[in-house]
Amino acid sequence: MRKIQRDFTPREVMEPSSPQDMRRISRRSFAWAGVAVASTYGVLHWIFTRRQDNGIPWPLRRGLDVNEQVWTDIYDGKRKVPTYADSQITEERENGDEGLHNTDDDTLDDFDPATWKLHLVGSASDSDPIEITLADIQKLPHVEQVTELFCIEGWSIVQKWKGVRFVDFAAKYPPPTTDGSEADVVKAPEMLVPYVGMKTPNGGYYVGLDMQSALHPQTLLCWEMNGKPLEVEHGAPLRLVIPTKYGVKNIKRIGTITYSTDRPKDYWAEQGYDWYAGL
Amino acid sequence: MSAVAISEPRREELVIEKKHPLAIRWFHWINFPVLFLMIWSGLMIYWANRVFQVHIFGHQFFGKGPLFPDSWYSPDVPHWWPNWMHWTLTKGFDDSGNVRYSMWDLSSRLAEGMSWHFTFAWIFTLNGIAYVGYLVFSGEWRKLVPKPAAFYEAILVVLHDLYLYRKPLPVRKYNAAQQIAYTGVILMGGLMLFTGLAIYKPSEQSWAAHLVGWWAEKPGGEVGVTAYSVARFLHFWTTMAFLGFFLVHVGQVAKTGWNNFRAMVTGYELTKIEEVGE
User: Fold this and answer.
1) Which of B264, B197, B205 is nearest to B32 (CA)?
2) Domain tally for chain A?
3) Which ipTM value was assigned to this complex?
């Protein structure tokens, strides 16, 4: 009779059960382990050595594209981002002057906000670019909101913004629809062309946005920050605030807005970052 | 010859005993490289904004700067960094052509780190869900989850490991300290996943950050502390705590020996039993 002298329920014992049998089992298992280690190394080496697609190996770019599909489907424009009280506003922080400076010596360029006009390309009403003044934009209903801005580096700030909701702007200057029907930005946003591109007047910085995020009720075209007119470093005379995207999408000093069927190019997405950059 | 009835002496015998199910071995070993990739790419992300500091009784450790400050690795290899660890430093040059050493080559790789992190997070998540699902449905969780008495017993285990307690401990698949550590690390994995979601989608899925940092959303608290920053803090320090677990785990496995380690690969362990002749 065989008893296992231990104080717990005996578990499964192999028959036959000699050290030779253990060696046989070991050899087989460690051979599999070797295959697994080699495969892991192979897969990682393969990813590292793939062709670069805008700054990262293409399999990782495909990974970001899959994430974009998933989060685009989950997206709900009725979900609002948290807002804060004035007492929670943090110190101002200046970060990023791409598109605002002279490329040769890195100083801020001699841009004159007084003569600025916004160019709108690809609108439903006109095939030619439309010129829009700040006064035209300020005729639309104003909104004030205190929201958090998340930098892609990891830090965040809470700031107060004043401007017009992009959805109100788009209602006044509607994008074309994909089937040529009349645009209804509020009731039938899914019929609109799927993308919005924005760039600075000198073209040095540019962002691409999906239409549904652009039409989020807290996406603003702003001219005031923390109760003061926007400073040049913060994007005067008009900048984008889009709390459902990383800071990099919150373009300063918008020169041109383009409604588009094709995905607009994006400054940081060309350098390895996610194009969607949704939060 | 007269028959003399002598009971056979007890003798020990080695048998091959099943220890870890195949599924658990796969989940464990898939998790190892994936979690390593997640921590490596996570540090690339952290490197873009190294803010966390360690204060113990008001004294700030790791120099004046944040955790992993520049002074650790640039422009010279820090004098206290051991020679055998120099492989962790990559020689490079800054914009002015000066030599710089960067630890694990983590700096200026934010975009790359994010693309690895957000791709492999799926594998980490699916593997983790499959593992927990298996524990629940197979009943293996009963061996893993500590019972209330385990918290007392775990103290004895630690004392035993420190050679301060000599009496034999109850033999189970996992002792009390292991149960607490392994169950804790599963909870930490869940917390890493949850706080990861909270800082990945702080706008669209703001409920996640709200759940761990609701108190920071109300006015009156420290300005700049938001639910997002709380989630980010937890995400980082849970990972650091996991690294602590990892070091102890590897040390304990090395101490316990080959038979135990082999069981995590093969599933079987050689066990001494006593055969009683009759």
Assistant:
1) B264
2) 1
3) 0.90
